Amino acid sequence: MQPLVLRTVAETAAWAESIRRSGRRLALVPTMGFLHEGHLSLMREGLRRADVVASSIFVNPTQFGPTEDLSRYPRDMEGDLSKCGSAGVEAVFAPLPAEVYPPGYQTYVDVEQVSQGLCGARRPGHFRGVATVVTKLLCIFRPHLALFGEKDYQQLQVIRALERDLNLGVEIVGMPTVREPDGLAMSSRNAYLSKEDRQRALALSRGLSAAQSLCRNGTREAPALVGAVRRELEAAGLREDYVELVDASSLTPLSVVTPGQPARLLVAAFVGTTRLIDNQPIGG
């Protein structure tokens, strides 16, 4: 059964209010559509943790830079609604941009520290757009919890910070990256890859696995761990955007993995013209 499709802020807020008034627990899964198993895993987990799951399908223009892929970002509304229904989603907010950012719109959310560096440095304004649209969605739905994937790890930390700092009262749930059988992190942008580039893209997960293996065997210095990832990228002919070892919460760079301090290794690289990201926890 397909979910109810909501087009306006007013009807979405009214629907969500009716769920809360009925005493049911509401989970939200925000998306930009072109759904894959990673998104559906969030929806199924939402249904496990709550009584009702809602989602949003909105390609948010404020998180794309002027030279980025907004116009060609993959879209499949009919297929997405079918997938939402199969995952147990009851309602989907699918607005036009003018509904989210009407004439005269002038309010944006900046999360200052965890948005710095990594993707924040390479995509100016990106996390301002992410933080703004997620804040709006949390205010419209007022869910009990909202679920996000760890593949977009810096984004997850930005969202956790904005929820905490603005006292929104929503439980933010981060879920592990869902991967293809060969290890490639699922991403809507994988649709851009040719068959050859799809194979080359495996260098991201291979590099992270190589670094994890080194760490398990006692190598904990950042240059060695980062170098293991870079070797895989170079061997596959990928163009590195960044490879960094950071504290798992603050995202500040680390020079060494210290026992008891959660760390994360993050990578971004271009496979042809397609930019992909991935990450893994390391050490601990």
Write a structural description.
It is a single chain. By secondary structure, this protein is of the alpha/beta class. The chain has two domains: 4-175, HUPs (Rossmann fold); 188-279, Pantoate-beta-alanine ligase, C-terminal domain (Pantoate--beta-alanine Ligase, Chain: A,domain 2). It contains ten helices and nine strands. The strands form two sheets. A six-stranded parallel beta sheet has the order 1-4-3-2-5-6, with helices on both faces. Helix 9 packs antiparallel against helix 10 (222-235). The longest helix has 16 residues, at 126-141. It is globular and about 55 Å long. The N and C termini lie far apart (43 Å).
Brief descriptors of the model:
Pantoate--beta-alanine Ligase, Chain: A,domain 2; six-stranded parallel sheet; 284 residues; alpha/beta; three-stranded antiparallel sheet
Helical amount: 25-40%
Record field, number of beta strands: 9
CATH-assigned fold name of the largest domain:
Rossmann fold
Q: If classified by CATH, what would the architecture of the largest domain be?
A: 3-Layer(aba) Sandwich
Write out the strand line-up for the largest beta sheet, numbering strands in chain order: 1-4-3-2-5-6
Rg from C-alpha positions?
A: 19 Å
Order of secondary-structure elements: EHEHEHEHHHEHEHHHEEE
Estimate the global geometry from the Cα principal axes. Answer: globular
Query: Would you identify the CATH H-level superfamily of the largest domain?
Result: HUPs
Q: How many domains make up the coordinates? A: 2
The percent range for strand residues is 15-25%
**Termini, distance in Å?**
43 Å
Total helical elements: 10
Major sheet details: 6 strands, parallel
- At the first level of CATH, the class of the largest domain is Alpha Beta
Mean pLDDT: 97
- The unreliable regions are none
Query: Which class best fits the helix and strand makeup?
Result: alpha/beta
